[in-house]
């Protein structure tokens, strides 16, 4: 009963719902006459035929509808250029809504249909004089988007005109157009530079950032053009929009690196010596640390990291840490940068290492970077905490993270030597884990730890040079040079002679670790790890005394060889090679033990018919090596003719060298340098670059961008350039001096600051630039007017230090009719600028 | 050498909206889309995809930076050695703009308003790859929002003749007098409201990690002051707090005068219209100089027993708070090879059945391999127990060694930040002011 009722109810409900929906749809259709809606977006292609007809109709509504259909087609990547003529007719439409859509169409299609766009170029030129700044900017954007070199002069004229536009919005578009024109044809470089000088003088923070960006794009080496603008740019920094701040800071970092003297760190005799212009930049940039935009925060941090004297470096740590909590994506990128800073200046983050703890829901890259950062922050004080953390991370569900965590434990042991026993205990605990990854990684790390430990006490002079190859594979290579005594002397024969009391006591623990590893050889399945254990057993499997079952060989060693021999055929090549080495070493230690020799012969025979060249070669090499030391290794077991012949040939007086046992021992056992965990290479990539973030995949980037990096972050110059070059009419305190300099030339009574030239020419390290500030003084009346003005104002300006910036604002706000705005604005800019 | 373009993919991975890649080969955007879809398909678990994917097939080096918004993927492609942070900041700004325009950002709203989205895209990202105008208040003068008024205006102007001219003219003058000459870049001039109000939402989130032995390894509280302003004219506001010293490492909306904050710890600003985030901060407990660990408001006791092909567990969750916690959610990743889970749930000693009651429930998601336990209301010092077992295909199962706990606490703040007063100068009207507190937490509890 209930069920039926419920059914009836739900049916009614759905009906009602549908009714409501229908009515709503009907009503909204009335309302949203032009609202496209998904019906337009998902429209069938055959309806597209009407578009041309619609575009030519007299009704704006029809036209709007057609334009929307066109844009829907664009977003589906359909060809739309056939409508071009019909669309262009509407570019002068009085309906702004329609015009904007037309422009969007043109912005999309003009670059790909330059010839058609050329036909309508007159319209765009007319639009450049439109009363609406929006239309002017859009027209300029379309014009500069037509990538045909032949119209470049027209475009250039348009850009020049727009560069002097009253609206900063249009001037911004002009700066961007400069970039586009430059991309199409570099021949207009001088004209563009000329336009740039106009744009750089811009007072509006809205367009100033873009102007600097344009200069940076078209003429990255012409930093000299920024001399006179440097101080103004610094002061305007807080008012520029976020994207502009990023660009300006990047350019200014480069400017400072090339033009200013490097800060001198504080010494006993005197304090820090920082150029006052650099101080100005840092002081103006510092408040931007409080910006919400992560890119800005990084740009400021970058400026401090590369420019600031070391005493100010601590300011970057808190803002950079804040980036970690912005979003997952930002955290991922910021960690790459933090890693670089943490490696070079661990002090900055040591107190806040708990901000880098790995969470299980972090992305794999984030986890791995965090482990690296934590390692960089490892000190004698916090290594206990970090060790516990890494032990937790070893249980992660991600194999690569597990590997990183376990290797990190190994690093702690080498960074803080006193912690080695703890690390070893932790790693030994991992050997018993049920997870393959944990076991094999732990073995790899244990191997290098044990080996380093066994090596270091005996060789007081730590001449363990990092070898480019890993030690297992280095066996062959290192055996050759170790014949020459010069190298092997410093490394005494640690495995063979544990006679000195000092080395035995230290070596005791590592040896018991090898014994445990040997006993667990069956559980260690990862080929790399297995090979490691085999090598360790062979290398350190010797004992002195006669208490063992096989004289000279530790009790646990022969059984490992037995097990390895049994599974020889199913092992990986890497393991086979190490089995051979193990066999060779053991029979060398006990050349008279019959079982061992037989076992070795068995292994050598198997290896001789192995698929792998390397295995066959290694077997042959080892065998020949042992000929003189172990009797019966060659002859007795080789039934087939090849070995016999070869052997006979050799014995028949071929001029080969037969080594004595001591010599073979030396070849096989000595000269094994300890594995050095990859040294952290100081990262040459600057902060804020993709290649730094994509560390693992940066090879491709490395190749083609090397020059760019140099440009992006040049080294400090020996000496800065003359700071007087940065004096400009904008600079309140400097105005006086600059005016004096000029007037001194006019009256020729005072000293001339610039050594050459009759005009105050801006000295440029990179060739002839036009002196820009002279242009301002072309008009003598203007010059005198501004001189008196600056003298009048100098006192006041010195006090608030914002100079013309604020007075300019006052002027604009006085034009405003809104009283509230006029009252408000200067105070706000005052607050932020001073 | 910048942001090449922006692509919006629907939940199935097909592009809905795409900026123009006219200066690039046709395959360029496709390669990026493919790279992202491949990475998403390969990801072993949610959120493990690298947000920056390197696309190396092309002659120039490029990468795609992507975020998820409303089930869709927003993807910005960058080329050259630029900072990916710029791309992410741009994606963030663009999403904010879409939210401002359409309220909800979803496939449906974007398809409904695709022409506006395209206009916004042209205005926010120049074809040279540099962001243009991203302030919502400025944009609203350039691109009309799809509100009812603009619809009506458009329909009026659709009738041929005089009205359309007037509209175009009025828009032009509006554009000239509005955004482009407004002395404050983030606020348009001449706003009028009949009812003036400004609301603040202080949202604090605790992020913590608790170690195996129950000690707090890290716990930080991050706060956000969200505002919704509907004020006329050019209101100059000053917001003061009774305890501003609990705020550290602040970040502010561009409207805040930084100088004043550093000098008197007061927020002085002219707000933009509508929703915006006024400030971000980190809570610094007053007694300590450094930002240290904040006590975690709950505790978890976990008895885990790992066996072959699965394991059993007994979890006891207890609140340490006087307030009621809401929407408590505990997640436990059981490993790639987990097959099923069975649990019983009980509250303070009394059993509530194997599936749970209205107050609490558990579920196992076989796709994400995650066990989820939800408690709608957790009273002060209330305690819940979850017992159960799970099975796995492999002999030695590999579950995550931590539980993810999320919770919400309405009208509560960890920092007890308190607004002292909000003063309005430069305008004479009375305004309605409101402040709300809200807290949430996300704790990782290791075992």
Summarize the structure.
With 834 residues, chain A is an all-alpha fold.
What is the element layout, followed by pairings?
The complex is a heterodimer of chains A (834) and B (447).
Chain A: H1 2-31, H2 37-41, H3 50-56, H4 60-75, H5 84-88, H6 96-109, H7 114-119, H8 121-127, H9 133-145, H10 152-163, H11 168-184, H12 189-200, H13 205-218, H14 230-236, H15 242-259, H16 276-285, H17 294-307, H18 317-323, H19 328-344, H20 364-376, H21 383-393, H22 399-415, H23 420-431, H24 436-455, H25 474-479, H26 485-488, H27 501-519, H28 527-540, H29 557-566, H30 573-589, H31 594-608, H32 613-626, H33 641-651, H34 661-669, H35 690-693, H36 699-712, H37 732-747, H38 772-776, H39 780-800, H40 804-815, H41 819-833
Helix pairs in contact in A: 3-4, 4-6, 6-9, 8-9, 9-10, 9-11, 10-11, 10-12, 11-12, 11-13, 12-13, 13-15, 14-16, 15-17, 17-18, 19-20, 20-22, 21-22, 22-23, 22-24, 23-24, 24-27, 24-28, 27-28, 28-30, 29-30, 29-31, 30-31, 30-32, 30-34, 31-32, 37-39, 40-41
Chain B: E1 3-9, E2 15-18, H1 27-42, E3 52-55, E4 62-69, E5 72-79, H2 84-102, H3 107-112, H4 114-124, H5 136-142, H6 148-158, H7 162-177, E6 197-210, E7 216-230, E8 236-241, E9 247-252, H8 258-264, E10 267-269, E11 274-283, E12 298-307, E13 310-319, E14 325-333, E15 338-347, E16 350-351, E17 360-365, E18 370-378, E19 383-392, E20 402-410, E21 419-425, E22 432-446
Parallel strand pairs in B: 6-22
Antiparallel strand pairs in B: 1-2, 1-5, 3-4, 4-5, 6-7, 7-11, 8-10, 8-21, 9-11, 12-13, 13-19, 14-18, 14-20, 15-16, 15-19, 17-18, 20-22
Helix pairs in contact in B: 6-7
Notes on the protein architecture:
Chain B: It is found in: Endomembrane system. Chain B: Its main location: membrane. Chain B: Belongs to the adaptor complexes medium subunit family. Chain B: Pfam families: Adap_comp_sub (PF00928). Chain B: This is Clathrin adaptor mu subunit. The complex is a heterodimer of chains A (834) and B (447). Chain A contains 41 helices and no strands. Chain A has 834 residues and is an all-alpha fold. Among the domains of chain A are: 34 residues; 156 residues; 44 residues, no CATH class. The longest helix of chain A has 30 residues. The radius of gyration of chain A is 39 Å and the shape is elongated. Chain B has 447 residues and is of the alpha+beta class. Chain B has eight helices and 22 strands. In chain B, the strands form four sheets. Chain B has a nine-stranded mixed β-sheet, with no helix packed on it. In chain B, strands 2-1-5-4-3 form a five-stranded antiparallel β-sheet, with helices on both faces. The interface between A and B is large, with 136 and 131 residues.
């Amino acid at each position: 009963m209930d069920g039926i009722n419920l059914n009836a109810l739900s049916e009614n409900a759905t009906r009602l719902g549908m009714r409501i929906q229908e009515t709503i749809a009907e009503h909204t259709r009335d309302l949203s006459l032009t609202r496209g809606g998904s019906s337009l977006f998902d429209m069938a292609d055959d309806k597209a035929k009407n578009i041309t007809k619609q575009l030519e109709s007299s009704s704006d509504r029809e036209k709007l509808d057609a334009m929307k259909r066109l844009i829907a087609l664009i977003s589906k990547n359909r060809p739309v250029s056939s409508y071009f003529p019909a669309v262009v007719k509407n570019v002068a439409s009085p309906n702004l809504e329609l015009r904007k859509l037309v422009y969007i169409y043109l912005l999309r299609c003009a670059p790909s249909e330059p010839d058609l766009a050329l036909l309508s170029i007159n319209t765009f030129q007319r639009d450049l004089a439109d009363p609406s700044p929006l239309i002017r900017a859009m027209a300029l954007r379309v014009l500069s988007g037509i990538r045909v070199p032949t119209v470049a002069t027209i475009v250039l004229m348009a850009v020049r005109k727009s560069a002097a536009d009253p609206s900063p919005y249009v001037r911004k578009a002009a700066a961007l157009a400069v970039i586009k024109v430059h991309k199409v044809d570099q021949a207009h470089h001088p004209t563009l530079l000329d336009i740039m000088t106009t744009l750089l003088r811009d007072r509006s923070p809205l367009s100033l950032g873009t102007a600097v960006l344009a200069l940076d794009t078209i003429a990255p080496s012409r930093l000299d053009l920024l001399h006179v603008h440097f101080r103004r740019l610094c002061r305007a920094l807080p008012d520029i929009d976020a994207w502009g701040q990023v660009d300006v800071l990047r350019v200014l970092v480069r400017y400072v690196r090339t033009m200013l003297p490097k800060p001198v760190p504080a010494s006993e005799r005197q304090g820090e010596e920082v150029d006052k212009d650099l101080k100005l930049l840092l002081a103006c940039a510092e408040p931007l640390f409080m910006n919400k935009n992560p890119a800005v925060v990084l740009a400021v941090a970058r400026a401090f990291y590369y420019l600031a004297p070391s005493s100010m470096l601590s300011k970057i740590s808190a803002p950079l840490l804040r980036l970690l909590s912005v979003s997952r994506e930002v955290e991922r990128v910021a960690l790459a940068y933090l890693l670089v800073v943490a490696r070079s200046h661990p002090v900055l983050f040591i107190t806040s290492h708990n901000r880098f703890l790995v969470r299980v829901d972090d992305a794999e890259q984030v986890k791995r970077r965090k482990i690296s950062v934590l390692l960089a922050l490892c000190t004698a004080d916090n290594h206990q905490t970090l060790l516990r953390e890494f032990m937790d991370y070893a249980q992660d569900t991600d194999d690569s993270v597990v590997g990183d965590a376990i290797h990190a434990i190994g690093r702690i042991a080498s960074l803080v030597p006193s912690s080695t026993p703890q690390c070893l205990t932790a790693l030994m605990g991992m050997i018993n884990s049920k997870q393959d990854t944990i076991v094999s990684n732990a073995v790899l790390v244990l191997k290098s730890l044990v080996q380093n430990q066994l090596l270091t006490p005996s060789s007081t002079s730590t001449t363990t040079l990092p070898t480019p190859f890993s030690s297992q594979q280095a066996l062959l290579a290192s055996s050759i040079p170790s014949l020459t005594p010069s190298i092997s002397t410093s490394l005494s024969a640690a495995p063979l002679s544990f006679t000195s009391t000092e080395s035995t006591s230290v070596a005791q623990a590592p040896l018991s670790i090898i014994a445990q590893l040997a006993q667990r050889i069956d559980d260690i399945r990862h080929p790399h790890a297995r090979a490691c254990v085999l090598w360790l057993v062979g290398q350190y499997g010797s004992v002195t005394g006669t208490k063992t079952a096989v004289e000279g060989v530790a009790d646990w060693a022969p059984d490992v060889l037995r097990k390895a021999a049994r599974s020889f055929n199913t092992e990986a090549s890497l393991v086979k090679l190490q089995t051979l080495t193990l066999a060779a070493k053991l029979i060398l230690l006990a050349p008279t033990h019959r079982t061992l020799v037989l076992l070795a012969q068995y292994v050598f025979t198997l290896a001789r018919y192995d698929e792998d060249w390397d295995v066959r070669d290694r077997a042959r090499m080892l065998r020949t090596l042992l000929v003189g030391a172990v009797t019966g290794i060659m002859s007795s077991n080789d039934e087939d003719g090849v070995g016999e012949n070869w052997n006979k040939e050799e014995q028949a007086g071929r001029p080969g060298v037969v080594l004595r046992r001591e010599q073979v021992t030396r070849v096989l056992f000595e000269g094994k340098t300890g594995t050095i965990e990859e040294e952290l290479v100081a990262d040459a990539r600057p902060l804020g670059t993709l290649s730094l973030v994509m560390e693992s995949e940066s090879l491709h980037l490395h190749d083609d961008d090397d020059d760019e990096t140099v440009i992006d972050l040049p080294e400090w110059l020996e000496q800065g350039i003359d700071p007087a070059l940065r004096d400009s009419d904008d600079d309140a305190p400097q105005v006086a001096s600059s005016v004096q300099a000029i007037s001194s030339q006019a009256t020729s009574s005072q000293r001339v600051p610039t050594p050459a030239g009759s005009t105050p020419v801006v000295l440029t390290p990179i060739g002839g630039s036009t002196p820009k500030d002279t242009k301002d003084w072309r008009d003598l009346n203007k010059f005198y007017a501004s001189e008196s003005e600056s003298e009048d104002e100098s006192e006041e300006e010195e006090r608030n230090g914002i100079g013309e910036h604020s007075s300019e604002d006052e002027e604009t706000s006085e034009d405003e009719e809104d009283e509230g705005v006029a009252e408000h604005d200067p105070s706000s800019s005052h607050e932020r600028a001073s | 050498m910048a942001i090449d373009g922006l692509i919006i993919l629907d939940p199935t991975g097909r592009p809905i909206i795409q900026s123009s890649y006219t200066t690039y080969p046709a395959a360029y955007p496709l390669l990026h889309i493919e790279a992202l879809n491949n990475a998403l398909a390969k990801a072993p678990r949610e959120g493990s995809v690298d947000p920056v994917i390197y696309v190396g097939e092309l002659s120039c080096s490029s990468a795609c930076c992507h975020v998820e918004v409303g089930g869709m993927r927003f993807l910005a492609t960058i080329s050259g050695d630029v900072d990916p942070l710029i791309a992410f900041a741009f994606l963030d700004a663009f999403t904010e703009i879409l939210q401002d325009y359409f309220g909800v950002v979803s496939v449906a709203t974007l398809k409904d308003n695709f022409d506006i989205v395209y206009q916004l895209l042209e205005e926010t990202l120049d074809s040279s790859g540099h962001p243009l105008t991203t302030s919502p208040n400025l944009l609203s003068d350039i691109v009309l929002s799809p509100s009812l008024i603009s619809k009506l205006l458009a329909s009026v102007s659709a009738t041929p003749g005089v009205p359309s001219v007037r509209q175009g003219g009025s828009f032009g003058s509006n554009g000239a007098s509005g955004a482009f000459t407004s002395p404050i870049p983030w606020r348009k001039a001449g706003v009028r409201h009949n009812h003036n109000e400004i609301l603040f939402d202080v949202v604090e989130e605790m992020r913590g990690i608790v170690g195996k032995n129950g000690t707090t390894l890290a716990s930080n509280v991050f706060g956000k002051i969200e505002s919704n302003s509907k004020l006329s004219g050019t209101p100059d506001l000053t917001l003061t707090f009774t305890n501003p010293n609990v705020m550290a490492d602040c970040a502010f909306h561009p409207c805040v005068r930084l100088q004043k904050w550093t000098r008197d710890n007061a927020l002085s600003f002219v707000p933009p219209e509508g929703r915006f985030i006024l400030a971000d901060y980190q809570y610094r407990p007053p007694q300590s100089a450094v930002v240290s660990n904040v006590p975690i408001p709950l505790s978890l006791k976990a008895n885990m027993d790992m066996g072959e092909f699965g394991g059993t567990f007994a979890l006891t969750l207890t609140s340490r708070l006087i307030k009621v916690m809401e929407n408590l959610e505990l997640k436990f990743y059981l490993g790639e090879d987990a097959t099923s889970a069975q649990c019983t749930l009980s509250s303070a000693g009394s059993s509530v059945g194997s599936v749970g009651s209205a107050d609490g429930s558990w579920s196992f998601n076989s796709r994400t391999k995650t066990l989820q336990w939800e408690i709608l209301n957790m009273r002060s010092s209330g305690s819940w127990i979850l017992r159960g077992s799970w099975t796995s295909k492999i002999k030695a199962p590999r579950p995550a060694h931590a539980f993810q706990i999320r919770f919400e606490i309405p009208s509560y703040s960890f920092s007890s930040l308190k607004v002292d007063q909000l003063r309005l100068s430069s305008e004479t009207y009375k305004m309605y002011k409101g402040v709300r507190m809200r807290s949430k937490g996300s704790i990782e509890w290791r075992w």
